[in-house]
Fold this protein.
Amino acid sequence: MNRSRKIILASNWKMNLLPEDTKIYMEKLCPMIESMSSRLDIHTYVPYIDIQTALEYSKNSRIKIGAQNCHFENFGAFTGEISTDMLLSLGVKNVIIGHSERRKYFCETDEIINKKINKALNSNMSVILCVGETIKEKNAGIELEIVESQIVNGLKNINNKYLNNVCIAYEPVWAIGTGKTATSLEADSMCKKIRSTIEKIYGKEISMSTSILYGGSLNLENAEDIIIQSDIDGGLIGGASLNPEKFYEIIDRVNNIVKKEGKD
């Protein structure tokens, strides 16, 4: 990893855990991570119902609480949606946009994702943009084109000044929740391609400062091999993050990598 970039370890709870679970989770995790390197950013993306509890019980801790989605309008007849103003009113400033499950199950297109990113950034929120190929696309040998297209279209018309509030999460769809994972070399190769794509759009300086995460069955067993790669700056972690002790073990493993480099 390039230690001039943020190292982000983000848990994505998806549709899991109730407020009472959230209280217990935060009470366990928050004290454990206080001594971690200042170079680590710890994020937790929770269901809407858990946001207030997560904020309350992580108050004054290092954890940044985020939402898993947002809408591109301020208000209106959008049943079941939530606006950036609503999130900000709670104190949430981070959001995941474009997760493959949103693309697959809720038919979110690159155009919709781009509108959401524009809205979030213009609301002074920070965004994790998720990109990744399906197994069909991988087997067809077009994974690079797919990921590049998702980035180009997702960041269409985004002003350079907002890019410090964007990080990219590469999540091969075939590895999410399947127990499969990209090899460390596969993951790093794609992340290099992502950085190259950012450079084409915004220039080398921005590309080198953009944090790129890996997600897709990331866990304690493979975290070190994945995250030590030169173009991978952390992870977006699903199932392995639902238990605070297991999430802490991953955080601790990455923290030890930073210590070994002697840069903290």
Remarks:
- The chain is about 45% helix and 15% strand.
- The chain has a mean pLDDT of 93.
- The first helix runs from residue 19 to 33.
